[in-house]
Structures are given as structure tokens and as C-alpha cells.
Amino acid sequence: MSDSTTKTKKSYHTIATGAALATAQKHSAESELKLYGGCFCPFVQRVWIALEMKQLPYQYIEVDPYKKPQSLISINPRGLVPALQNGDFGGYESTVLLEYLEDLSPDGALLPLNDPALRAHCRLWADHINRHIVPAFYRTLQAQETEAQVSQAKELKTEISKLIHAADSEGPFFLGPNLTFVDVQIAPWTLRLSRVLKPYRGWPDAEAGSRWSKWIEAIEAAEPIKATTSTDELYLDSYERYAENRPHTSQVAKAVNSGRGLP
Q1: How far is Cα 182 from Cα 164, in angstroms, rounded to an integer?
Q2: Can you tell me the distance from the alpha carbon of 124 to that of 94, in angstroms, rounded to the nearest whole number?
Q3: Which terminus of the chain is less hemmed in, N or C, by CB atoms within 10 Å?
Q4: pTM greater than the 0.85 cutoff
């Protein structure tokens, strides 16, 4: 006899929900510029946010990256999302694609114009996010022992604090009043702190009135971010397998478990 109290394991979603679903449907028509994405993937959301900021005509194509359709593999042989196709061009890696979109269109600029030092400053802190904050997020989520969870969460808080210290003191965004490159890089994980790390690892809310709280509120309210964000349930379901550190969860999870850099 089966145990009726056995918890049914949740799986990742393959269709966006809420505002993200409406945006995906709005951009379902054929277009030369195509974004291949997975609705739960934060790396995809970076590129999706940029497309919404720049108001470029594009087609959003939802794929299951764990089944790796040929249309995706033809662009990225590793079968990872996001992948972008624009005519004969095909590219991948979220930061590379953000730079590509910035070169493609000056509208909705991600990087400051005519200021090489400030552009380099933005790239350095985007690199900090990718090298330190993103891996610490996954280590915190995947850790199974309480002591390890506490230790990894402390590291994540430290790395976020460094980013906050580097940001414009008034904000609310990294460089001031406008959403730009570094904000787009950190936004998907900022959203997942409350939607994933809080329920699974007890991640605390930002202190009311703090610079971090002000930044989070601005990210949550930004239209390009709201338009690419699904309902909370999608993230809670899709990240359960990370929180339980299940085998074969993803290449990201595998890299974290092995101590290697993210793929």
C-alpha cells in the first residue's frame, strides 16, 4: 500500500505564467530576432529583460532545455539557454547576449554612453555578480546541512554587500535613477531571493529603508522586469529540485556540487 502522506515531488515548469506568459504570447509571432528560453531560468530572464527595455521586435520561443531540441542545439551545441538567433547570427551566454543587444540597438541603453571608465566599472561589477553572487546563491540553495546553509548564506550576504557598496549611494538602481547593465545582471537573482531562497532557506527580507531594500523595490517595480516575471508558484516548483539537490538537476547544479565554475 502506498503512503498517502508521501510528498509529491515538484518539477520545473515549461510554460511561463502571469505577466511573463502574457509577454511570451505577445511575442509569439515569427520574427528574425528569436530568443530561445526557459521560463524558470534566470540567465534567460536577463536577456528577456534587455529585449523588453530596448523594445526590439523579437520572437520568444519556449524550449525544454533538458530535452534539447535541435533548433536550440543548432545555435548552442551544448543545448543551454538562453540562445539568440538573428538572421545568420546565433549566440549564447547571457552576458555576451546583453552586449550583443547593446551593440545592436542604442535604444534602452544598458551601458553609459561616451564614458569608458564607467562602462568598465559596470562590467567589473557584472563580473562580480557572475563570479561570486550567482555561485553563492546556488551553493546556499543546494546545501543540505544546516551548518553549510548558514555558512553559504553568510558568504552570499557578504558578496551582495560588496555590490551595494559599489552602487550609487542614492540609487535606486546601480548607477542612479535608471535601470542599466548591472541591474539587469542581478535582477533575476534578486527576485529569486524572496521567491526561492526565502521559502527554502529562510532568506531574510532586506532591512526596511536600507539601500538594498530601495534597490529591490525598484527592481520589482521596473516594467521590463515585471513583464518577464512569472507567478511565485512557478519558481517555487521549479527550484525544489535544487533545494533537495536532486541528481541530474542541471549543469549549473552539477558544477556547484563539484566545486567548478558555472557552465
Answers
A1: 11
A2: 15
A3: N
A4: yes
